Amino acid sequence: MESGIAESNTSTRLNPIMYGVVDTQQACNCSIQSKDTFFETEYFQSFSDSYRMFRYVLNIAILLPCSILGLAGNALSFVVFRKSGRTMTSTFLLLKTLAVADSLILIYCLFFICVPNLTMIKSTPLLEKYMVFIAESIPYSYPVFFILLALANWIVVLVGLERFIAICHPFRAKLLCTLSKTKKHIIAVFVLAIAFGLPRFWELKVLTVIDSRCHPSCGKVEKQLSVVFTDFGRDPVYVYAYRIVWHTLEIVVIPLIMVGYFNVHLLASLHKMDENGKRLFGQRASTRSTNIMLVVVVLVFIVCQLPLCLTHIINPFRPFFSVVAQDNFQYALETAICLALINHALNFWVYYVAGKRFRRVFMETLFPCCVVPEPRESNGIPLHATPTP
């Protein structure tokens, strides 16, 4: 961290809003104004009180409880998937990995987005110390956050691909949807997410700025921590090529296109099976329940991520908007960001509502006395005991 002062008798004054990055126009001196999503900017101080209250409602009244409930739900999901089959399957491995990635994202939301917004209402010495920690850790936590976003979104793509192969190409499922291949796919996604996210570790730095209003004769020098772009992060080519174009494609656009393609074919195949009144190659009721559950997971992902995709595409053209349109777009952008983050808290509830098998295992795990014995086939094997391919 760079510092402009070496005195020990100092007090640290941190602007409660300044825990993010400056806007791209300030960063690279270019004509376009592109705010890096999920983080505050220095010009936030000039926003209206209504906008501040809007952000407070989004991040405290909505995102905070959703993050807490989502963490609890993801933990329960992880436990249920461990008990869902007598043998590990590729589907359960993907869903457990997704639960871990979603939980890490929600932890970031709690400590780096929700808690700092509390300082909009009241600042205490404890919160000021916490904001110092936030500012000093942003250059490292910021890239990790985007790595986790990429990992979670691409795990959803793997879930859609796995179901697409199992339902639309069942003869190839036993060859392609194996546990070993799924582990390799998860590792590959993780490595690529880290590789593509590495440049962000050189984007930001922390500066300590002396408050010019404080006279040395007071015996106490106040300073303000500021998170700014490095020379590398301000480079116009890097800003346009990586932070705008590649970021939008990698985390939002390409995953949405892929899961959308998979889901269209999945829904068509399931509908065709219903019309014919057939089970797909002897699959049991539990497998059908899992298929429906995962289709709904992908649908929820599309609904929650699509607004963010649209705002990312529109964002580079914001300088051409009128002042009123830019203000309205800012509200839309914040709403899209909040909705995309909430998506990482919803999967447990989707599993419970849309997954009959998940509900049964959940009840057997937490409330075994309330579970009615499940029907069995003629050979004595429970209908819900067969693992999903």
Automatic annotation (TrEMBL):
Q: Where in the cell is it found?
A: Membrane
Pfam families for this protein: 7tm_1
**Entry keyword Amino-acid biosynthesis:** no
Q: Where is the G-protein coupled receptors family 1 profile domain?
A: 73-351
Task: Write out the transmembrane intervals.
Answer: 56-81, 93-120, 140-165, 186-202, 244-270, 291-314, 329-354
Q: Note the InterPro entries from the entry.
A: GPCR-Ligand_Int, GPCR_Rhodpsn, GPCR_Rhodpsn_7TM
Task: Could you list this entry's UniProt keywords, alphabetically sorted.
Answer: G-protein coupled receptor, Membrane, Receptor, Transducer, Transmembrane, Transmembrane helix
Q: What is its main location?
A: membrane
Q: Does the keyword Transmembrane apply?
A: yes
Q: Which cellular component appears as one GO term in the record? A: membrane
What is a single molecular function from GO for this protein? G protein-coupled receptor activity
Q: Which PANTHER family match?
A: FMRFAMIDE RECEPTOR, FMRFAMIDE RECEPTOR-RELATED
Family as reported in the entry's similarity comment = Belongs to the G-protein coupled receptor 1 family.
Protein name as catalogued: FMRFamide receptor-like
